[in-house]
Amino acid sequence: MNSSKVLLGVLGGVAVGAIAGILLAPDKGSKTRKKIMDKSKGFADDVKGKFEELYEDVTDKYDTLLQDAKGLVSNHEVKVK
Fold it and tell me: Total structural domains in the chain?
């Protein structure tokens, strides 16, 4: 899945949740703001975790491709000599 689509989906969900929380909140404004901040921290942590996983995955694939390319180059050099 495209990471930009995931990010847009998460941000859209956060926005809709925040708006719904404000409109449907039975608490005072200060309590509602605190609840929204707490939930947004949770969403931010989730997004950060997803990006860290994506970064690790891309890094692992890059390292594997680099090692494969080095192997191909070294095999080619042996055949040329």
Answer: 1
For the chain, the farthest-separated pair of C-alpha atoms sits apart, in whole angstroms, at 80
Structural domain range at position 39: 3-80
Summarised one tens digit per residue, pLDDT across range 37-70 is: 888 788 888 888 888 888 998 999 999 999 998 8
Question: For position 47, what pLDDT does the model report?
Answer: 83
- CA 66/CA 43 separation, integer angstroms: 34
- Tell me, what amino acid is at 16? V
Reference 36, options 46, 51, 52, 23; nearest CA is 23
CA 59 – CA 17 distance, rounded (Å) = 33
SS3 at position 27: coil
Q: Which helix (H) or strand (E) holds 48?
A: helix 29-80
